[in-house]
């Protein structure tokens, strides 16, 4: 309602903004957003009044809520008033160092807006882009690369240190960000690599096409064909790319020939593109099948498609000589078709084919001459007249009669047909002057007074050339050679032949012309540039930072820990320091310099901040113990499938002895046969990328009715992907798989209520997922909630000073990201389930699993 009022009375509403200005902090966030939208829309019309709100935005940039900070920056950068450029620059600088990746993402968007408003700020914006390119958050990556492409696409040196990081982040970036990064990396690779070795190839179609060797590029064909199941807009772009590829590499798409058959429901633009691809893929082996398919297409009610099919048949006839006669005979049969458009298109194609072998087909020319009485399409009539004129000496009886008929209708013919009548008359005048001299002079007289100046010009030219007089020049002697010279046969080529120099998937490739803003791919360099520019300098971190003037205090409980635990801690800290080297060092330097304080001075990314929080939590709070260990087992191998060998597995919820990042899995093997089973071991492993597995030692033998329990460790990489492997015996191998529930990917964390609230505040906004639960009041007892939550997830209980709030804390096994679960009881029979974590995918899955468990009785 408010937005409608603002929209309808925008000329007078700026006076109300002063009232908003004075009480902006007390306004609801939803109202703030509407005011923001209004300001963006109408600020340019009343710039002086719009400037009143700038101070409000500056205060909003310091708001604790990251959504408010991001909205303020977004609106401030959208107000196109040149006088506030310095304020915008300062706001972008501060936002680029914000703790929230969402705010940093909006800072990257604001860079593009500021650059379009004031291009002179380019150098300062490049410095911010360079800083944001080092950001490790997937939320920021796509936006900052877009800003890079907009502001300084030629500064390839900024990409060197971030090249490998962008490649690694690519799979986790949102879709539009992936598109931008892929295009940028494609341009980058073409300037940095000498030849298309597979080390530089990524799993993207256009990247494979432009960079990969031919032996590797075939992998993209199946993926592109699969995209043809999408909507027509996607099909159109994909088919254009395939049409370009199929010209040079037919073998890539030949196995999928039937996928390009035309369907009756396809729109015309899709049908024509599929025809183009079928033509490119045609060869001696499949041409007979394709011609039968084309015969069906010619009968289509879509006349444009039918005409395109006839053109396709002509191209097949020129490219595959074995079927030239077959195609020509088929086209001649089409001359008797009832549809005039089909006949006309057939005439045009036959004319092109006859140019290649005119001597052999005199009968066809005679047949086409008879069609002049019925065909009215100008292009077809002009083609017939051109053919008769070129072969007038082979049809001496027919050509003069055709000239006589066309002379009668000369004044009513199309301009294209008139030109060919003039040419026919000139050729017959030179070869059969006795019969056609008067007819030709009559036609020349008609052309002399035609309304079209091209016709009049051609008439005067021909008269001076073929009718000698005192003013005739030397060219008159060569008139016959000029008019009856052997013409080269036309080349029937694909319209996609020259599109391969445009980058696939771009607007320029689609339009077949260079679009504004298109960046051409560079040629491969003769010598490879120095590859060391992409090496990132690793700075070793200090083990522990101590403020100046304070002595380091020894931990009084240090002696309590065993040597083995100390070794594990040291190895863990060293591995953490390697993965977080660059950005943490930069933050330590900023803190020690003392130049600035507060949140705005920290420039770490979302994942980096999460790792630091977990590191602090693990040191200050320590590892928790499982609240509850469910005894539920899962079938790994049924005794019928395993030929008597049965296997079950369960998750004991204890630290894995094989690695800190692995989930402990216990497998119970049972021999249900009356014979012993020998050499039980794990065979071939089929694991997703990044997943690791530590298998149990081979079991020499398992006695009849015997049972044994073994332990394994699996690094699921914080995902619920299946770990597939083979469980083998001496004689057989059985394919089995383990899929972890999301709750088993966690380890409990012990922390105080104060620490919980602090961590929860840092994981708000985009990192918070919540839902409402409805259940009977008896299901909301503390013991019931504790048991139900612990049954689903391996979490630790956090002490709570409120009876209606239950808190649980855990961290993911692989990355150590905090997972905070809150169940807040409301009035009646409702409760609020809240999960705070950087791992939003895991949070959504855990939310779906907890909700029905807490709701049921």
TrEMBL record:
Residue ranges crossing the lipid bilayer per the database entry: none
Organism: Muntiacus muntjak
Protein transport listed as a keyword: yes
Protein function: Subunit of non-clathrin- and clathrin-associated adaptor protein complex 3 (AP-3) that plays a role in protein sorting in the late-Golgi/trans-Golgi network (TGN) and/or endosomes. The AP complexes mediate both the recruitment of clathrin to membranes and the recognition of sorting signals within the cytosolic tails of transmembrane cargo molecules. AP-3 appears to be involved in the sorting of a subset of transmembrane proteins targeted to lysosomes and lysosome-related organelles.
Protein family (similarity comment): Belongs to the adaptor complexes large subunit family.
Name recorded for this polypeptide: AP-3 complex subunit beta
Taxonomy of the source species: Eukaryota, Metazoa, Chordata, Craniata, Vertebrata
Its membrane topology: Peripheral membrane protein
UniProt xrefs under Pfam families: Adaptin_N, AP3B1_C, AP3B1_C_2
Ranges of biased composition (kind: Low complexity): 598-607
Localisation per UniProt entry: Cytoplasmic vesicle, Clathrin-coated vesicle membrane; Golgi apparatus
């Amino acid at each position: 309602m408010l937005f409608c009022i603002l929209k309808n009375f925008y000329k007078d509403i700026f006076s109300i903004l002063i009232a908003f200005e004075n009480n902006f902090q007390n306004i609801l966030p939803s109202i703030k957003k509407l005011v923001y939208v209004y300001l963006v829309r109408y600020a340019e019309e009343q710039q002086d009044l719009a400037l009143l709100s700038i101070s409000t935005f500056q205060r909003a940039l310091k708001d604790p809520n990251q959504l408010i900070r991001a909205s303020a920056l977004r609106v401030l950068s959208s107000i196109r008033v040149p006088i506030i450029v310095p304020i915008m620059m300062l706001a972008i600088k501060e936002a680029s160092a914000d703790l929230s990746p969402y705010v940093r993402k909006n800072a990257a968007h604001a860079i593009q807006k500021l650059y379009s408003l004031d291009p002179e700020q380019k150098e300062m914006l490049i410095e911010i882009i360079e800083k944001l390119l080092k950001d490790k958050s997937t939320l920021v990556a796509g936006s900052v690369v877009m800003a890079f492409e907009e502001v300084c696409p030629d500064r390839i040196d900024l990409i060197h240190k971030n090249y490998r990081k962008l490649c690694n982040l690519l799979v986790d970036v949102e879709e539009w960000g992936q598109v931008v990064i892929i295009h940028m990396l494609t341009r980058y690779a073409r300037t940095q690599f000498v030849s298309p070795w597979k080390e530089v190839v990524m799993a993207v179609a256009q990247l494979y096409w432009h960079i990969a060797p031919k032996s590797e590029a075939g992998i993209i064909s199946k993926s592109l064909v699969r995209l043809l199941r999408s909507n027509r807009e996607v099909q159109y772009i994909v088919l254009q790319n395939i049409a370009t590829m199929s010209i040079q590499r037919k073998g890539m798409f030949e196995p999928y020939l039937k996928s390009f058959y035309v369907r009756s429901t396809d729109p015309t633009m899709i049908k024509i593109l599929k025809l183009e691809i079928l033509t490119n893929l045609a060869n001696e082996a499949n041409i007979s099948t394709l011609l039968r398919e084309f015969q069906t297409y010619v009968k289509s009610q879509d006349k444009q498609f039918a005409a395109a099919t006839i053109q396709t048949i002509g191209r097949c006839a020129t490219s595959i000589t074995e079927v030239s006669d077959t195609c020509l005979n088929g086209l001649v049969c089409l001359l008797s078709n009832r549809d005039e458009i089909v006949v006309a298109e057939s005439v045009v194609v036959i004319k092109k084919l006859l140019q290649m072998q005119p001597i052999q087909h005199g009968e066809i020319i005679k047949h086409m001459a008879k069609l002049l009485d019925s065909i009215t399409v100008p292009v077809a009539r002009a083609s017939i007249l051109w053919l008769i004129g070129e072969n007038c000496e082979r049809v001496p009886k027919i050509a003069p009669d055709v000239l006589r008929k066309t002379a009668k209708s000369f004044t009513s013919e199309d301009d294209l047909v008139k030109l060919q009548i003039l040419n026919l008359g000139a050729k017959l005048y030179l070869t059969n002057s006795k019969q056609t001299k008067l007819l030709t002079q009559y036609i020349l007289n008609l052309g002399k007074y035609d309304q079209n100046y091209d016709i009049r010009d051609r008439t005067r030219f021909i008269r001076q050339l073929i009718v000698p007089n005192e003013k005739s020049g030397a060219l008159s002697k060569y008139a016959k050679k000029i008019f009856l010279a052997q013409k080269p046969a036309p080349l029937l080529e694909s319209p996609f032949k020259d599109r391969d120099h445009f980058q696939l998937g771009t607007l320029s490739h689609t339009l077949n012309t260079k679009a504004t803003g298109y960046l051409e791919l560079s040629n491969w360099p003769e010598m490879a540039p120095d590859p060391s520019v992409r090496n990132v300098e690793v700075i070793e971190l200090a083990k522990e930072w101590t403020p100046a003037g304070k002595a380091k205090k020894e931990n009084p409980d240090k002696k309590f820990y065993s040597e083995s635990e100390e070794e594990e801690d040291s190895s863990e800290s060293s591995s953490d320091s390697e993965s977080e080297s660059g950005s943490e060092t930069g933050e330590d330097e900023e803190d020690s310099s003392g130049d600035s304080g507060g949140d705005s001075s920290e420039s770490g990314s979302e994942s980096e901040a999460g790792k630091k929080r977990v590191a602090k939590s693990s040191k200050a709070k320590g590892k928790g113990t499982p609240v509850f260990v469910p005894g539920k087992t899962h079938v790994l191998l049924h005794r019928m499938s395993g030929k008597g060998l049965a296997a079950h597995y369960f998750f004991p919820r204890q630290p894995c002895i094989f690695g800190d990042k692995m989930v402990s899995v216990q497998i119970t093997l049972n021999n249900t046969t009356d014979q012993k089973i020998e050499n039980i071991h794990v065979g071939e492993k089929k694991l997703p990328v990044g997943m690791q597995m530590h298998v149990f030692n081979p079991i020499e033998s398992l006695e009849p009715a015997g049972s044994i329990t073994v332990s394994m460790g699996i690094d699921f990489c914080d995902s619920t992907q299946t770990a597939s492997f083979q469980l083998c015996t001496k004689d057989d191998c059985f394919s089995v798989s383990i899929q972890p529930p999301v709750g088993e990917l966690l380890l409990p964390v012990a922390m105080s209520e104060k620490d919980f609230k602090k961590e929860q505040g840092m994981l708000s906004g985009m990192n918070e997922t919540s839902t409402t639960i409805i259940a009977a009041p008896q299901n909301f007892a503390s013991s019931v909630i504790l048991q139900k939550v612990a049954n689903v997830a391996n979490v630790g209980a956090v002490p709570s000073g409120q009876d209606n709030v239950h808190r649980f804390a855990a961290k993911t096994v692989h990355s150590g990201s905090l997972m905070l679960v809150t169940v807040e009881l409301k009035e009646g029979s409702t409760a609020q389930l809240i999960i705070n974590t950087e791992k939003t995918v895991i949070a959504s899955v855990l939310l779906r699993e907890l909700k029905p468990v807490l709701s049921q009785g």
